[in-house]
Structures are given as structure tokens and as C-alpha cells.
């Protein structure tokens, strides 16, 4: 029945089909229809329901399951192997497990829906079905622990470049927020395992909001979260394309980094960064203060000048703009 409902919605083009009509047609209750619709949504279809009008298929399927894609990812390493989960607690956890089991550099975990998507510092990442890209990638660089934060900036630069490829104008807010028109469309979580002072593996988690409308975000983040759809509802790219582009951008920046070090990555990162001199409020574990950004160091550390003119090195902190 679910597939028939889907077919009916598709054939109905842009119009609405009422729950009552669907119930009549498929000889079941409106409640049953509602349940089927709900399951279709969990499979990733964007179905709108409007009071007294009924249901409408907003965008036809934008599959995130690689078996439904037009072809494999055409990179050499990043995303060559993709493990897909219709639902999962967190792709981060799964990637850690796979890395411990010895999966190779570049392996990606991809999910339609995360029940426990993780942000930084124990925060949550809202990751519903059908609307975003939720992925964690295993990297096995030969790096010292000290250099590892540079990988976060590399990934932020890769996400920014990906968005540029689709015609967007992203800004990076140190270290890892990607903003479109001032709204956070992507977040990056970098976690690692180390042996003494060498990195064993790094898991980079990337969350990218694609199809959400403003009202799809929970109220507490509605004024700061954004999506590609919100910027340009007419031409939101498919997730398959976004993922493939992201993989190739990560791959090319990773090679640049391995061959030439952090400087070229830093330059790319800076070209997308919010302008230095931006006023901000810094909340780190140690202190809270206001200041203006000065730049980033070759280690990817943020430099902020406080009101007394003193320069602070920020390794990890929460940053609020327009303080
Ligand atoms: P963050 O700590 O910088 O951002 C988390 C904060 O952002 C939340 O506290 C909330 O205010 C806001 N937020 C939550 N969900 C969203 C959203 N969908 N869009 C915009 N803002 C939001 C950033 O952490 C790191 C996020 C990484 C997410 C990926 S998804 C794949 C992988 N698996 C996993 O569990 N996490 C990563």
C-alpha cells in the first residue's frame, strides 16, 4: 500500500490528496494512511501535510542510499567505501567501531536518520530523515597530535568549496561552522584516537542541512540554523551529488595537505572565513571575554584581541558573533 500511496502522490503532481480520499481508494482508515505517510517520510520522502487539504509530495525522492545512486563515488580513497544505515544512533560511533576493526582510510558511514546525532562538547545535532547529509569519514593521516586540529579546518574548507561548486556563498566561522546568509548549515565534529603523540585515526563527522524549511527546525535553533533549500528553494542539489562533491573536495585538500602542509589549506580556509576584525564573545573552558578576531596561526589556533589589547590563543571555544 505504501508504494501505491507514493504512486498516487506522484501522479497528483503538485496538488494535494486528502487523507479521506486516499483512505477510500486504498480501503483503509485515515489513521492507517497517516501511518504509511509517516513511514514514507522516515524513508526520506518529503511529504507535506496541510490541514483540510491533504498530502503533497514536495520533492521526489532524493535518495541517500548509495545502492539507489546513479553510480559509485569516483574518488580514489575518500568515500570509495560507503556504509549506509537507514537509521543509526550516530555515524560517529559506528565509524569509531569500524576504524577499530581496521577499515581503511576514506571509509564513510552515511545515515538517513540519526537518533543521537552528536555535536561538539556533548551537544546534539538534529538529524532527521530525508533532508540532510549525515556522514562520518575515517582518516588515517600520519600526523602528530598537535597537528590534528588542522584537519578540522581542512574539512571546513572542503565543505565550503563543495557549497561554492553548487553556487552558494559560504562563510566559515572558526573553527567549524559553515554559514549561509548568517545561518549555520553545516557543523563538523573531529574526534581522534592516538598512540602517545601520533594520530592512529581521525573520525570527521559532517552534518549538512539540505532540504529543511525553517519550520522543520526545532524552535530552539530556528533563528540560527539554515539549509541549502532556504537559500534557494528552486534548485536544491540532490544529496548524492553533494556527497560525491564533498568526497572529492576532501580528497583533493587532503592530498594538498599531505604534500604541501597546512599553509595552502590555511589560505583556502581564510578565503572563506568571516573577516578578521569581527567582534565576538569567546566562551572557553577557562574564560569568557569579548574581543575581535585577528587571524589563525599555522597550527589553526584562533587569535583574538581583547579590549585591553592582549592577544589570546583560542584552541577550543564557543564563539558568538556581534557580541
Ligand atoms: P556544534 O556543537 O558546533 O553544534 C551543535 C549545536 O548546533 C547545537 O547545540 C544546536 O544549537 C545547533 N544545531 C543542532 N542541530 C543543528 C542542525 N541540524 N543545524 C544547525 N544547527 C544545529 C557541530 O557541533 C558538529 C555537528 C556534527 C554532526 C555530524 S552528523 C554526522 C556525524 N555523526 C554525528 O553524530 N555527528 C556528526
Average pLDDT level = 93
Number of helices: 8
| N-to-C order of helices and strands | HHHEEEHEEHEEEEHHHEEEEE
Question: Into which percent range does the helicity of residues fall?
Answer: 25-40%
Strand order of the largest sheet: 3-4-5-9-8-7-6
Ranges with pLDDT <50 over ≥5 residues? none
Q: Quick one: biggest sheet?
A: 7 strands, mixed
**Assembly state here?**
single chain
How far is the first residue's CA from the last residue's CA? Answer: 54 Å
Strand content: 25-35%
Nearest-angstrom radius of gyration? Answer: 21 Å
Name the features:
single chain, about 325 residues, alpha+beta, seven-stranded mixed β-sheet, five-stranded antiparallel β-sheet, 8 helices, binds ligand BTX
Characterise the protein shown here:
- The N and C termini lie far apart (54 Å).
- The longest helix is centred in the last third of the chain and has 22 residues, at 239-260.
- The strands form 3 sheets. A 7-stranded mixed sheet has the order 3-4-5-9-8-7-6. Strands 13-12-11-10-14 form a 5-stranded antiparallel sheet, with no helix packed on it. Strands 1-2 form a two-stranded antiparallel sheet.
- A hairpin with a 2-residue loop joins strand 8 (183-195) and strand 9.
- The chain is an alpha+beta fold.
- It has helices at 2-11, 19-25, 30-42, 91-100, 149-165, 228-231, 239-260, 262-272; strands at 46-50, 54-59, 82-88, 108-114, 132-139, 171-173, 177-180, 183-195, 198-209, 279-283, 288-296, 302-306, 311-314, 318-321.
- The radius of gyration is 21 Å and the shape is globular.
- Ligand BTX binds next to helix 4, strand 5, strand 8 and strand 9.
Amino acid at each position: 500500500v505504501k508504494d501505491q500511496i507514493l504512486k498516487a502522490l506522484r501522479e497528483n503532481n503538485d496538488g494535494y490528496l486528502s487523507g479521506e480520499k486516499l483512505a477510500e481508494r486504498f480501503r483503509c482508515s485515515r489513521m492507517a494512511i497517516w501511518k504509511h505517510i509517516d513511514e514514507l517520510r522516515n524513508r526520506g520522502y518529503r511529504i507535506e501535510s496541510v490541514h483540510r487539504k491533504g498530502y503533497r509530495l514536495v520533492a521526489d525522492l532524493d535518495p541517500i542510499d548509495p545502492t539507489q545512486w546513479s553510480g559509485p563515488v569516483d574518488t580514489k580513497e575518500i568515500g570509495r567505501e560507503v556504509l549506509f544505515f537507514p537509521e543509526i544512533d550516530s555515524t560517529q560511533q559506528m565509524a569509531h567501531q569500524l576504524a577499530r576493526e581496521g577499515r581503511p582510510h576514506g571509509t564513510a558511514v552515511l545515515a538517513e536518520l540519526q537518533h543521537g546525532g552528536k555535536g561538539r562538547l556533548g551537544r546534539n545535532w538534529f538529524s532527521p530523515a530525508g533532508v540532510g547529509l549525515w556522514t562520518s569519514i575515517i582518516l588515517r593521516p600520519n600526523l602528530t597530535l598537535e597537528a590534528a586540529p588542522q584537519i578540522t579546518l581542512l574539512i571546513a574548507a572542503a565543505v565550503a568549496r563543495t557549497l561554492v561548486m553548487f553556487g552558494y556563498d559560504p562563510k566559515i566561522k572558526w573553527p567549524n561552522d559553515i554559514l549561509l546568509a548568517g545561518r549555520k548549515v553545516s557543523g563538523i565534529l573531529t574526534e581522534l584516537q592516538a598512540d602517545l603523540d601520533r594520530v592512529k585515526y581521525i573520525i570527521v563527522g559532517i552534518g549538512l542541512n539540505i532540504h529543511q524549511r525553517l519550520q522543520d527546525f526545532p524552535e530552539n535553533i530556528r533563528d540560527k540554523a539554515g539549509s541549502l533549500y532556504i537559500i534557494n528553494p528552486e534548485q536544491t542539489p540532490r544529496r548524492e551529488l553533494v556527497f560525491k562533491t564533498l568526497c572529492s573536495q576532501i580528497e583533493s585538500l587532503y592530498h594538498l595537505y599531505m604534500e604541501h602542509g597546512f599553509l595552502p589549506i590555511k589560505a583556502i580556509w581564510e578565503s572563506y572565513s568571516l573577516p578578521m576584525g569581527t567582534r565576538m564573545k569567546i566562551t572557553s573552558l577557562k574564560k569568557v571575554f569579548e574581543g575581535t578576531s585577528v587571524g589563525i596561526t599555522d597550527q589553526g589556533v584562533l587569535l583574538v584581541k581583547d579590549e585591553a589589547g592582549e592577544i589570546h590563543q583560542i584552541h577550543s571555544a564557543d564563539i558568538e558573533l556581534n557580541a
